[in-house]
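Write out the 3D structure for:
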Amino acid sequence: MYRVMGAPLSMRKSHQNSTSRSLIPLGLGTVFAVILAVGAASSPLLAAAVVLGVTLWMVLRADGSRSARYRAVLEQSPNGTVIADATTFQIVDANPAFMQALGYTAPELRRLALTQIFVDESAGAAGLAAKLQNPDPRVPMPLRQRRKDGALLEIEATGYRLILNRRTTLAFSASDVTLKRKIESQLLEKQQHLDHLAHHDQLTGLPNRLYLAHRLPGAIEDAKRAGTMLAVLFLDLDRFKDINDSRGHETGDKLLKTVAERVRATVRDEDIVVRMGGDEFVVVLQSVERAELINEMAARINEALSAPVIVDGRPLNATVSIGVSLYPRDGSDMGELLRHSDTAMYQAKDRGRNNFQLFSPVMARKLRERVAIEASLRAALERGQLDVHYQPIIDIESNRVMGLEALLRWKHPTHGYILPGRFIDIAEETGLIVPVGEFVLQRVLKDVGFWQRAGASPVPVAVNISAVQLQRSNLRDRILSLTREYEVSPELLLLELTESTMFERRELRGGDSRRDAISQLRDIGVSIAIDDFGTGYSSLGYLKQWPVDFLKIDRSFVRDLVTDMSDLAIVGAIIAIARHLNIKVVAEGIEGWQQLEKLRQLGCGLAQGFLFARPASAAQCLKLLSGLPLSLTDSTAQTGEFEAGPLTATGT
C-alpha cells in the first residue's frame, strides 16, 4: 500500500478535507510558476529535488487520477523535502528521505519547527530565522541538520515560499553534502600540499625560485610605497663541487641542509631565504632603513658559514661568496636586482672568495665583457679562429731545441689576436675549456706528425692541461687514439699541469683519482710537468709522492733573478731539490743574457723565453727542429710576436 506521512494511500483519499495530516491542493497556475522558477535556479540538482518534493506533491493533491505516479516519484526521491508554516516554522509535512536522514517519524517531525532541525552556527538563531523566512531558490544555503540522536549533518538547502490555499508555507529540499565537504577538504589539503611542493625546495625546506618570483615583485612594491631600501644577496658556496666529487652527493646534501639552517637562523624573521638550486641561495632583506644593516647581515652570513660543518663525524669547511644589489640604487625590478647581485657575487669569487661585494656599474661593464668574450669564444671554436703556436725549450749548455711549448692563439676577425690571459679563465668557468683543450691536443699531435713527415728531428711538445681535462676518465684513451691517428709516439707529449691542479688539498678520494690518472698517462709514455712551480702550494712532500718529470720555474722568480737575492735563493733551492729527485727544471721567461748566465751558474738545464725565440707557427718551427744548435744571434730564429687588440662587449 502506498503511504503518505506514514498513512495508507486509501486512508488519505477518504480524508480529503482533513488539513491536520495533508497539504491543501495547489492551483495549476501556481504550479506552472514554480516550475519556471525551478528552471531558472542556479542549482539544477536541488531545483529538481524541489520540483519532486513540492510541485509534484501539490499536483498529486490537485489531480487524484495521477496521484499514484506522482506520489511514487516524490517518496522515492533521494533528496529530503520538508514543508513548514512560514510564520511559525512549524513543520507540516516531509517525505521519507527527509525523515530517514534525521531518524524521525512523521508525528515526531510535526511537533518540531524548522529552527530545531536546521542549524547555522555562523548566523545565530536570529540570522537563521531570517534566512529561512526569505529563501532565495537560486542560491542553496549551506546549513547543518540536526538528527534525532543529536548528530549534525552538512547539507545544502534550497527553499521556496508557496501559497497553499491562502496559507503561506516554506518548502525546503535538503541535500547531504557531508561526503562532498570531506572530499573538498581533502582536495584543499592536497592542493595546499602540492602548492607547498611547487614553491619549496624538497632538500632544505626553503622556498624555491618560483616562490621568489611570486614574492620579490611584491616586496619591491612595498619598499617603493614605504620609501625604504631592499637588498638582494646572492650566495654561492665556494668549491662546493669539490666536496661533491670527493665526499659524494649524500655528504653534499647534508652540507646544503646545514647551510640553509644557518642562513635562516642568521637573518631576520621578515627576510626571505630562497634556495635557487644547486649551491646557490638568495636572501632578500626587506624594510632596510639604514645601509649599515646590509653590510652587517652579509658579514654575519659569511661568519656563520665559515665555521666548520660536521658531517658524519668529519669537519667540512664551506665558505660562501656573496653579491649584494640594492633597490632602488641597483635596479627597479626583480630581473635587474638578481642579475646585479649575481655579478657582484662573481666579483667576490674573483677577490678570493669568503667575502661579500656590493654591486657597482664597473662590475656591470666587466660582466658585459665576459659575456662578449664567452660568445665570441664559442663562435671562434665553430669558425676555426683558434690556432696553436710553439715556443722552443732550449738546452742552456748546447743551445739545442729540446722541446716545444704549445701556446693557444685566438685570431679574432675584428680585434686581431686575443691573448690567452683574456679568455682562459672564462673558458674554465663556462666549461668551454673542454672543447678548447681538445682542439689544442688534436692540433699539436697533428703538427708533430707533419714535422715528422717533413724530416724534422722530433722533440717533446708541452701542452697545458686543465683540472677538468685531467678529471675526464677518457683522457688517456683519447691521447692513444690521436697518437695512432697521426702516427705519433705518446713519448713526444709532455702534459703541463699547474700546482693547484695537481696538489690543491682535497679529500683523499679526489687526490687518489688525480694521482691514478697521472700514473696512467705516464704508463703510456706521456711525461708530466708542473707549470709555474713556486707560485702555488710547492710542498716538497708532494714531489716525493707524485710522479713528475719536469718542474717549470715561474717567470716571476726569473725576472729579478739578477737583482733580487730572495728570487735567487728560491730558484737555487728549486734547482738543487729537483736535481736530487731526478726531476728536470725549465726556467721560463728568459729575456736577458745575465738571467741566462745566472741560471747556468745555478745548474739549470733548460730554459725558454724571448731571448731564444718568440712563439711561431707550426710551419715556422720546421727550421727550429733541424737538430742543430740554435744561433742566438740569428735574428731569423726570433719570429715576430703579435700585439693583441681589445675585445669589447660589442665584439663578435
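The two ends are 96 Å apart (CA to CA).
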